[in-house]
Specification:
alpha+beta; PH-domain like; 5-stranded antiparallel sheet; 4-stranded antiparallel sheet; 3 helices; 11 strands
């Protein structure tokens, strides 16, 4: 089941303006750093800035587009075997049988692709199972997301505080 990410209004504005500013700044750096002259049967390019500034000008629009892509294309899919977290070009697969807990949380320091202060924290086993990591996501409807996760991962049981925990 596919769950779209929730983005608070301020996140949309800040990330959108930052991405746009990066793109405009990058184009401006390249435009002001290269002088183009036309001669008969010849195109002459001369640098008015350092190669580093040109590289920065070329990369800033790429980072700006990636920021906007992450803002618009973040979703969470619960498949038969994995929780798939996609945020722009980034894709992360968490096996359902490695999830040990999931709960709704607010605030705190995020460790994942979030766009809202209302988050779902998912604790899962990493590697050979002796370490526990966590990821924080922000589905539009956290309660429905936890219900879908409980249906897909039968080892997770609903607790009194609406969280999910794996049976020991």
């Amino acid at each position: 089941m596919l769950h779209r990410a929730k983005n608070d209004g301020w996140v949309n504005w800040v990330a959108g303006l930052a991405g746009l500013a990066m793109a405009v700044a990058g184009v401006g750096l390249v435009y002001n750093g290269v002088e183009i002259a036309f001669a008969p049967e010849l195109l002459v390019l001369s640098l008015r800035t350092t190669p580093f500034m040109l590289l920065l000008g070329a990369l800033l629009p790429v980072f700006g587009v990636c920021l906007i892509w992450c803002l618009l294309a973040t979703c969470y899919e619960i498949s038969f075997e994995n929780l798939i977290v996609q945020s722009g070009p980034s894709l992360r697969r968490i096996p359902l049988d490695s999830i040990v807990a999931a709960r709704i949380s607010r605030g705190g320091l995020p460790r994942g692709p979030i766009g809202s202060r209302q988050m779902v924290r998912i604790d899962h086993r990493k590697g050979n199972g002796d370490r526990v990591g966590s990821i924080v996501i922000s589905p539009r409807d956290p309660t429905a997301f936890l219900e879908s996760l409980a249906q897909a991962a039968p080892a997770l049981r609903r607790q009194a505080d609406r969280s999910l925990r794996a049976e020991a």
